[in-house]
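Journal club side-thread
Mid-discussion, someone asked how the predicted structure for our own chain would compare to the paper's figures. Pasting it here so we can look after the session.
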Amino acid sequence: MDLVKLSEKYRLELLENVIPFWMECSPDKLHGGYFTCLDRRGRVYDTDKFIWLQGRQVWMFSTFYNKIARRQEWLDMALNGAHFMQKHGRDREGAWYFSLDRKGTPLVQPYNIFSDCFASLAFGQLYEATGTDDYAVIARETFNNILKRRDNPKGKYNKLVPGSRPMKNFGLPMILCNLALEIEDLLEPDLVAELTGDLVHEVMDVFYHQETGLILENVSPDGSFADCFEGRLLNPGHAIEAMWFIMDVATRINRHDLVEKAVQIILRTLEYSWDEEFGGIYYFLDIKGHPPQQLEWDQKLWWVHLETLISLLKGYRYTGDKKCLEWFSKVHDYTWERFPDPEAGEWFGYLNRRGEVYLPLKGGKWKGCFHVPRGLFQCWKVLESIAGSEGS
């Protein structure tokens, strides 16, 4: 495997295909913000704007500006989304709405804390790009609001009967592991240290299922296993994505044992969730092998495979475990054969179990300018690092 050529493959795909697609098709030049509901050829088929996707795109173009090249057009793209979010994105309490119409009128209340997570991420990165204090304030205030809502993320919008079957979800501690590192320069060092330790424990101990070595998507408040649909749920993409967050944290705090455990979780998850008949990684599974509640359980999704590629490369980079490289080759081949769209640009998001395109869209309510460009960027840089260290 020629790692230098592979690194170049990821770099060119990002710079010559994916970034130009979003630069051309997504900006709303009339009302600000971004269109994310884009058909195969990038035409807008719905004008609603989802705050978590707006935030992700602000973060993405701020990151390009900060870490690839200080191109004014990338910063302008980030500012286009940020100004729209500043003007329309929050309620009176400072919580970020889930969705708005094209002009910025709220449509869906701020029930989803991930809107706040990606808003904080976005303005933190934009502050690094511009030095504008207002952006730092928004990032910090939003982060503090997230911490206040941490034990009950949906708050008054929670539809469950109180106390009937309380559950903790993996998504928030997973995202906070990454977010805390992203904006740590805006936070008190003691808070970052305390929070990081707590989050690592949550991800690697509380949601870790000892019997199988897998990560559960939901657990009871005391961390115990709940034998119900939600308690048995496995989300392989979430588990694998979280492991590269953990590896990044672990290298910062010099915890090689956590890196090793993360790699083992990645490998076990792949062994459990790889479709031996048609290839690819299942979207959802039941840890006891029962039928999952989600009807889309056997679809093959873009983000799952891209996050897996990142995690496998980081696992190899940090540990030298050849199994990571073997799995990377397997997942890379599956991913590049099916998701990129050389005819119309960007990548497909949704395949059926056989690996055929299920929905030809390039963006919607859940897919925006995030996992594809972030995955390509991360793989490019990690491959470059591996090639440099092995060539020296």
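Post-session note: The mean pLDDT is 97.
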